[in-house]
What we know:
Layout: H1 2-6, H2 9-13, E1 17-20, E2 23-26, H3 30-41, H4 54-81, H5 88-106, H6 111-122, H7 136-189, H8 194-211, H9 253-268
Helix pairs in contact: 4-7, 5-6, 5-7, 7-8
Family: Belongs to the two pore domain potassium channel (TC 1.A.1.8) family.
Domain Potassium channel: 17-82, 91-160
Membrane topology: Multi-pass membrane protein
Amino acid sequence: MIESQEITLAARVFEAYYLNDRLKEDQWTITSSILFAATTVIPVGYGFVTPISKVGRFIVIIYALIGAPLVLVTISDIGKFIITGLCFLGFLIIYLFTGALLFSLFARITYLEATYFSITSVFTIGYGDTEPPVPVPYLILYIIIGVILVTIAVEVLAAEIINHIHYMGRHVSKARKITRKFYKMARAMDVRRGFNSGLMQIESFIRFGLIFGMMKTDSNDEQNVLTPCNINSTFEPTNGDIKFADDDVSDRPLHVDRERRQSKWREDY
């Protein structure tokens, strides 16, 4: 009774027990406190030590609501800072399995158990069914580096996919604009020859543009910067519908109208 009264309120705020060989032992030490604070805001949450009092749980709620977003934003910023120059996905896989190998060598666990612990820790799953096989400072450092690599890998893959989607959308819009411009140019050069001649000129413009790099744009540039396009072909304009001086031009509407006007003028005079 006297011993229970000597336990202060501050000591019971974060009171936690861990069942080890059927004996309840107080696990709230300095190292376990650091591990608890780090895995709460990262967040992994192994569950080896947990608050059991109402005050302790309330403090954890406030701490997690403030700390977890700040830590995740900081980790994301660190990932963006070092986002170039590494193959992050491959490096992440190497990091996971190398860490598992070191865990299995320096701790008395199998490689499968070490791999399981490594993946559940770095991907912030943290079931809490496997005891940390290394000292707490090394474990926290391993988790922080792993979470940074996961954030970078996910961001790189997502950015690449989004970039391809936007690239396809931009070029569909560019193709429509280029087609309209070529059509207007062809119609403006000689409206009197009709629509068939305009289509012929459009085809010629397109071939000319492909040879000199006018139809290929840089995918990394938003301002339609033209880049060279090497095509091993000669420029052969489609001239099957063009009427030359030695051809029969009686089928041209302009020629027919002129002949009619001359015939009418002869009849009048």
